Every structure is written in C-alpha cells, then in structure tokens.
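pasting for the record
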Amino acid sequence: MAPPTRDFAKRPKAKVGKRAPAKINSTDTAFKTASVAVRPQAHILDKNKNAISAKQLQGKDASSAAARMELASSQGNALSTLQASMRHHAPAVRASGLKGVRDAVQSLSSLEVTLGTYILEANLPSLLPNMCRCWLDEDDDVRGLAVNLFGDIIKNLKSSSEQADLKCLAPFVPFLCAYASSALNSLDRSIRKDGALIVGMLSSSEPSPSFSSLTSSSGKEGGLSAMAVEMGKHVDLFIPPLERLLSSMSLGGRGVNAGSKEGKKRKRDTINTTPTGPALAASVSTLLSLALLVRASLGPEGGDSQSNLSSGGIGRRLDPSLYVSGECTFLRGGSAHANSLLLFRESGRNYNDLHKPIRSIMDLPSIPADELVDEMENAFAAEGDVLVQAISTENDTTKFEKVQRMTSLLETLRMKFVELSHSGRKSDNDKDGLIMSTADLETVDVLVQTIRFVHRRCQSYQSTEDQQQAMKQSKTKPAAKRQPLTRGKRATAEIQDIGECLVAYKTTVTKALTLLLETFPVCPMDNVSASRYELTNAGICSALAELGGDNMFEDSRGSSSQWMNSVFSYIIPRLNSTSETKEDSTEKMYSGAEGVATNMLLKVVSKLLLPHGVHHDSGSGQITQNYLLKNPFKRHELLEAFAGAFFPRLAFPSVFESKGQSGSLIYTSSPPAGVEQKVEQLASTAMGKTAAMLLTTLITQSADRILEPSKDDKNKLDEKRSMLLLQMSSVLPVYLVSWEGRVPIESGLVLASFIAIARQWSESTDDNVSDGSTMSTKRALNDLCLGLRRTLEALYTTSKTQPSIFERLPEQVQKLCVGLIGLLKFPSEALTKTLADICSKSFAPHRVSNDSEEVAVISNSMANYFMEVMHSLRKTMSMPMYLTFLIDGCGIKYASRTSMMQQKSVTQDGDAATDPFSESVFFYDKSIGQLCRFLTTSCDQASSKVLPMIRPVLQKWLSATSASTNDVIKQLVQSRAAISIVAGFTWDEVLSSHDPVQRNSGFVAPEFLKLDEKLDRLLVNCIIDQFELSAKLWSMGGGGYNMDDLTAQQQYLARLLGPITMLLRYRHGMFGHFLEGVCGRVVRQSQDTEQQEESTTSGKDASVTEQGDAPSKKINVAEVHMKALLLVLKSKEPVSMVDLVRNNKQLKVILLSAAEDIQKTVSGGHLAHLGNKLLHQAKLCTQ
C-alpha cells in the first residue's frame, strides 16, 4: 500500500535539461488525428434509382413514380442536404453544395430520357429558389456555379422530346425574372454581368447563348420556346438596367472592360465555372442578351426562323392535361411533396379561350371570387368609377414611356455602333463601306440584329394609322406646355405628346439608317475571309430594309432611293452567283454562314417584291399596289435573278415526250447537267424553304390575274412576270418531294398555290394551244398543269419499307393533294393504282410493321374523300381503269385471318367484343357499301354495262368459298362482298327502273339484270357455303362464341342474310334453287352423321371419345342451315317471302316438299324441334 501523501508537499524541482514531473492529479489532453478515406457511395444513388419497378414506369404511372424520387449526387447526398449547404454562411460550403446539385442533375443523363426529365421536373419547385438565391451571391465562384447549374437544368429538360419547348419552366419565369432583375440592379458590377447572362439564357432557352441563337429556331413550334415567350412579357423590366450596363461597357476593346472589380473577389482555382460553349466578352454577352430579350418580346413570329408543325404529339405540361376544363387539380412536385400547385379550373363558361393551352401563369384561370369579397368590392364601386379616367391616363403614360425607352435604347445602340466602327477604317473605294477585322464581325452582327428587333418592338406599340395621324398633329399644332405627372407626392416625369415621341424616334431611326448606309457593305482586310462578311452584310441589308421601308414614316419615301439602290446593287450579284459551284476551302468552311446570309437576303427580296400597301385614287377610283422598289423594271430584274438562283428550268416531263410536243415555254429540252440534283439539295435547306414560301406568296397574290394583264402594260411586264411565275412553279414539285412531308405547313402552302393556278386553267386541245393567236401565258399555264399531273405522282409512290409522302402528311394537307388531283383531271393508270392501294389500307385493319409500329394509313373520311373525287373524274378516265380503282381501293384483298387477329374488335361501349372472329366477317361492310354505291352510279344502266365488266372478279370471289384453305375469314369476306355487289345492282334496278319487277312473277326482268343460270347457281352455292363456313368459324372460336348463345346466333345470321334475302326475293328462280340446295345439304349431313355414329359404336372407348366431336360439328352445320332458312321465311318488306310464295304455285310445292324432307330427316335427333318449326313456318307461308 502506497504511503499517504503529505499536505503542503514541496514540488520537486526539475533537473537541468529535463522537464518537471507531472502532477499527480493532472489530465492528459493530447490527441492524435488521422485521415479516413471513404469510398464514393454510388450504390446509394443506384438503389434510389432502382426503387421504381418496371410496371410503375409505364404509361401514366411514370410521372407519379418519378415524383417520389429525390435527387441525389454521386456521393449519395440528398437534395435536401445539398440545399442546406447552399444556404450556409461560408462560400466554400455553398460552392460545395452547388457542385453536388450539379452532379445530381448531370447524373440524370444516365437514366432513360423521359424518366430523368420527370424526376428533374418534380424537384424544380424546391430546387429553383435556392439556386436563384445564389445568383446574387457575393462570391464569384458560387455565382458562376449557380449560373452553370441553371444551364444544366435547361440542357437536361431540352434533351426530352416532351419538354423540348420548356413548358415546365414557363410558370417559374416571373420568379426567375425577379432574381435576374435584382442581379441586374446590383451595385456589384460582376453580379450585373452575370445577371445579363441569365437574361440571355432565359430569353434563348440555351445553356450558353450565342449568335446562332438569334438565327435558329429554339422550339418545336415557331421560333421560341414557351419559357422564352413568357420571358418576353417581362421585357420592360430588363431594358433599363441592360441599357445602363451596356452604356458602361466599351465595344472598342477586346475582352477587358474599364472599371471591372473582378480582382477584388476571392477565387478558388480548383472550381471550374467556365460555361460550356465559346466564351464571349462581357460587352458582347450583354448585347446578345439584350437582343435575345427583345426578340423574345416579339413573340414566336418575331424572329427570322421558319415555323413548322411537328407530327408528334403535344408534350406533357400539366397533369392531367394541357387544357383547362372542369373542377380543380393539384400538381405535386418536389422531393417532399411540399410544393404543390393548385389549379382552379372553371366550368360552365362559353369563352373562346376556355380550352387554350397553359403556357404561362397568366394563362391559368383565376380563383373564383368569394361572396364576401364581392360585397366589399361593391361597396367601393363608386370610388372605382372615379379612378377610370386616371387609369386611362396611366395607360397613355405607359405607352409614352415605352416609346421613349425604345428611343433611348436605339440611340444607345447607335452610339455603340459608332464606337465599334472606330476600330475599322473607311475604304478608298466609294462603292465599299467600312473595312473591319474578322474579330469584330460577330459584335456587328449582334448589334445590327438588336437594332432590327428594337425597331420591331417599337412598331408593336401603336398601329400605323394612329402613328401617322399623331405625327401630323404634332407638326401642325404649336408646342404645348408640358404638364408634370404627379405620382404620389413627387413629379417624376414630364408627359410628352405621342406625336412628339414618334418624331424623336423617327430622328433616331434616320440617324441609325444613315450610319448603316455609311458602313455598308463591310469589307474584309484580306480576301481570304471574304465569305464570313456576307453574313454581316446580309444582316445590314435586312436592317436597312426594315428601317427604311417602315410604314410609320410615309412622308420619307422620297429619300429612300439611296438605301434602296445600295441594297439592290448588293443583292443582284449574290443571287446570280448562288447557283455557281464554289470549291475554295475557306468558303466551304463558312458554308453555314453563307446559308444564313442567303436566307437573310431572301427576306429582303420578299420586302422588295411584295407590295406593302395599296393606294386608292379618289378621282378614278382605281386601286394600285405600293412597292418599296418602285421601279417595275428593277423588280422584274430582281425576280429573274431570284428565279435563276432557286428555280431553274427543268427538263420535259414524260407527258410532253409521249405527246411529241416540239417545245415548251416553261420546260427545257436540254437542262444543265445535275440541275435537278442541285435543286433537291437546295430544297432541304432553310433558304430553300424561304424561297419556296416567297414564291407561294407571289403566286397567291397574282394567280387570279395571271391570264389578265394590265391594259397599261405597254412593255408587257405583267405578261413576262406571269410567265416567270409559271416557270418557277414548275420546279416546286421537286421541293415537295425533297421535303418528304417533314414540313407540312410549307407543303400545304405550295399545294394551295398549285390549286390557285389550276383554278385558272381549262384544258385545251393541242391544236388550240399551238395556235399563234393564243397568248403565250395560256400555253405556259397549259404546260404547267400538264406537267403537274406527272411530277406530283411522286408524292403517292409507296415502297415496302416506308409509306408514301402523301400518307405522312396531316389530313388537312392531304385534302389539298386530293383536291389538286380533281382540278388537274385525267389521272394516269399508274397514279390510279397507287391511289387505290392507299385507299385500301384505310379500310383494312391497321397493319403492324416489323418494329411493332403501326403502319401509317389515311383515315376513313380521307379515303371516302378520295373515292368521291375519283368518282367525279370517272368521265376523264377509261371505265376499266375506274372500276379497277374502285375494286382495289375497297381493301377486300387485304382481308385475311392474320390481319383480323391484329385488329382489336371493340364494341361501341369500349368493351371487347364477344367473338373477334365473327365480328371480322363484317369489318368491311362499310367499304363494301361504298363500293356498291359507286358501282351502281358509275353510268346510266349500270347493271347492264358495269356488271358484265366486273363479272370475272365476282366469280373469283364467289368461288373462294369452295376453295380448300384455312383462311375462313377471307372466304367469308370476299363471298359477302360479291353477293352484296349483285344485291346492290338488283336493288338499284328495283328503285330506278320504270317497271323492273314483273307483275306476274314478282322478280326483276332478265333484260334489266343480265345474269345467266350459271352465275345463279354459283351464287346459291356460295350462299349455302357461307352457312357451313360460319359453323366452322364458330368451332374455331375456342369457346369465344358459344353455340348455346341463341341471341348471338340470331344477330350474326341476320347480318349475314341481309344482302342474301335481296337476291332470293327479286332474282328469278334463285329462291327455288336455294330451297333445294339447303334441303339436300341437311339430308346429306344427317345421313353422314348416322353412318359415323354406327361406326363409332363398335370402336374402342378411346376412339369413341376422339370421334365424338366430329358428329357434333356436322349437326351444328345442319342447325345453321335450318336457322338461316327460318329467318329467310320470316323476312319482312321489302324482301318478304310470304307474298312471293303465295303468288307462285311452283314455289309452294318446293317449299313444302323441302320442309317435310328436313322434318323427317331430323325427327329422331336433337334438331327435331327446329324441323317442326320449319314445317310450321312453311305451311304459314303457303296458306
């Protein structure tokens, strides 16, 4: 035991070079550290991704199942954890959280595209607020990561075809705009620059906006996405701060801006915040964002992009649908379902916009007002009336402010253009403009496009008539004293008259126009990069045409000759050289820029060739069209250059070669080599589509006057213009075929222009056309319409791998194609066969290709329209060709058991039919009925003319029932079609002829329905065979159609006997043959059944079991015969058999004899009750 310590013990002294010993009660606080390496927990994310079963990811369950998934990074950090880091006070932690969120968003690309989009869309409500808060962060790295995160979100959403239009981001645009506006109005210059970049991303729907965003389409429909359209509604919020930011920047320097404070902010080299895509200077990026914003404010049609109709369906926008109708629904989103959007859907309204798509929050219906709120509003109704005048004044004030704002912005852009032009030098040649380096071209392009969009924006504020009237009033009246606008307690602005605002804007436009004229055309410093300058000069041309050709300034037209001559002299050589082959490698490098430049020039050509208004002469009352290019000779020269560049003369179609015509006014006998291939390549480009649309507009405006030149046309310019338009129209079929149905709107406009031309055409004989007295325009029109008959046949050509171009077009465009066939008349035999094949697919069950995709077919209504048009053209084609089209177009040749099995038989209530096999027999009834209608109305006395011509086809179909094949459905459909056709002719004679039914016999006279006894026998045998095939079809149903279901049997036989009873009633001798045939079949089958029963008695038990089913099938056939005969005897007018039998003694004897024989045959079996019923019904008919 240790000795006890003494109190007040002296501390031992430490020896020299050694530490003093530790006290007895001291605590050791030393510790050691060690690093622990943790593996990336990617399996947690994989487990989260695989938590959804395959069944949930199908159909409508995909969105709801994806909404239950929370975003997680590759390290396994959930979105809620990362968002907490984004709100941390330390910049490094915030940056780490943003990197984790970016990693989570980027990891969605490894999933299926639709599923990844659903997951991201569901988490947007909780993700966007924290991301937008980081847009205003003081740290540059955090702010850069937040901007790049928004770019990743846009990129991920656009990867899905359903969300390529970014409809899911449209409701969040006001929220995003609030943070972007806050960034633009920040005191920190770097935050303002990032705010300008965010505005560009919102306006272009691109992760990294560039100049190509101004010239390319951003959405599927129109030129803008849904988010960009919504962004354009907030343009007035961003223009002032963007203008201030742009004014503080210099466009003369390359990359470094004065006054930047980027060095004061702390940066971490380990974080990469550089956005994807080419890096732009801050000044150019700000200018580009301004251009994209103003372009978005102009709407989908404000840009230069061409609008196309997607063949696909509308993407998922809001659950349950895109359209507002009825009640209310919740759209749940976010990781914890905390963020929900409640949509109140009004009902019972008759507004026209009740079913418009929800593209923004402004489109959402309002919440129904409360009754108490209504009472409070009524209490303040009197005060509200007093404020009406103030509100009107405020609206006018807003309009003034907008015009002033656009004037200020346009002046700022002009000054920036002057500043940029200082980096170049003036050319020594008077014809050339400014010489600039290639590095400044993109800035010039963006600046010129911004000027164009700002001018369009100002035009949208007020109509032209109001502008001109206000400008005239402002010039005539004396200057009035301006009244200050009082807002609250201070006067913040002075209200100018709208006319004064427009005069100030006109002055600014004139200055900008003069500046552009001094710069145009921009020339290169070396000839190596000359091709790139074409795009810049094309943009300046467009700006000159818009600024100089504005309807706002009608009084300045006299001074427009300068810019008009400059633009005209620049465009003509470019159009003439478009068809030349360029082999220089540098020019090939800028082939994309060349195409965009040519497309811009075509926009200018359209402004010069198309009238911009009309002039009413009060004295003579004549109406003349006003053109920007007033000189008609220059307009014709421009039109010739346009035709030579895009619509060269092609070779003779086959129609001219067959007729041996010596020449044509619009076709050439020796075209240049490869000219048609060049046109095909040109048609698929953007400039080819623009050229085609310009030509269709020219044709539509002058189609009604194409054969009526003006009386004052001394130089025959109108006739030359008509000839040129007809020659260019002959090339448009090549464009149609090259598009292959991908651009349905453009295809429809081209077809509409063809219809406008064809309506002016009445076909003449060769002698009349070649007569010297006939105008050349009529000859050219005749040649064009004859050529269209052959060149448009390529639209209907089908192949084994893909359908025709016609079948891929929307139904509205298909109707234009069919209507054009009717106007051109005289279809060829090849076209008739192709059209018959297309029509037959619509009546047949929709076949499935090898890729399990449904083959494209036209609708039944479209096929009926086809039949009607071809029926109207029956006199322009031979009768055999027309009959072949009708028979082949009904689709009977596609009838088979295999095709019917692919077609789901559905009842009117939407439930599956009782027996798909039996329903397949009547699948073609609609097609057969239409075929009978067209056959009987083909000509006068159709039964005596048409019926003998189609007899071979009828015999082939009637003989199908006796053929040995397993395809029972095909046999029944073809035999039913043949019997229905003969019955249709019979009924037509009964209704239309004077005395077709002989009074003594009650049948159709032989001279009206020319059928011989051989065909009658074939018809009777076919009718009886149909009963046996029906019994066989029921036995094949595998229990699907039960023989014990008497109601189903009665319905089936009643439909089957419809056309049969018509023949039995009105065809002489056929009912007697039918009675004898049915009686013979029943007796023979009963005898065969008895013999089989006797043979099975002496067999083994197994054989008895195996052959026990065969007699039952034979008995079933006899039962079908007897039930069918009973229904025939019970038929009513107009096919009643009672009066026919009572008036014919021979039929009485045959009917009673057949009934007695059948009754005796089945008296000992289970069909005895049917035999007794049949004998009783026969006696009733003969009394």
